[in-house]
Amino acid sequence: MIRETWTDFLHGYYICQSCEIVDRDKDRTLVGHTCTRCGTPSSGGYTFFDLTVGIIADLIAELYPLPNPDSLPSIGPFSDPPVSHRLAILIFFCTLGEMLLQHLLEPCVFRSGLSPKIQKSLLQDILHPLDHIEQLFPILTGATWQQAVIAASKRAKSDFRPTVVFYNKASKGRNQLLHLGNKMAVSPKLAKQCFTHMAPLIKLFVELYNIYIVKPL
Length: 217
Ligand SMILES: [Zn+2]
Fold this sequence. Notes:
Elements: H1 6-10, E1 14-15, E2 22-23, H2 51-63, H3 83-111, H4 116-126, H5 129-141, H6 145-156, H7 161-180, H8 188-213
Antiparallel strand pairs: 1-2
The chain binds zinc ion (ZN).
């Protein structure tokens, strides 16, 4: 069987247009299907992620063989990616995380009721997530970043903390690469781990959305 692309995987997340819960209920594409959370009949399937998130994920897939995203792969018996691919994988992986974070936090900013000037400033901060997430996340959601990752892990019954630790490590490697020109900052192991942590990273942001952004019933 041909495995699904990352775009297919990402577009398998649907959002309820009424209560905004995000899940993988394919029947949301059927008009009249009732939402399992709020009971509102569906007016059609609305995918949660926009096209750009899928494009960046598929770019990584072009650089490295990927099994089915849903299988949460361990590092397989693949040969080491060449240096140029390792650099690209790391940059795309970090970009993917930044896009997911922006996708999560933008609705918080727009709904915050803060002045347009402060909203603009917060949105600019999201563009530098690693520097600001620990300050920004509590302002927008009322929870610390650490609390949020634990809550998302509990909801998904899957520990996302190793993925967050890895993301921070990858981002430091990316900065060394971009600002210091250190090509050796991207080891074969680091590049392969990017690939391993892609699906958990995406799932973490879906859970965070369902906990902190979705409308209460
Ligand atoms: Zn609903």
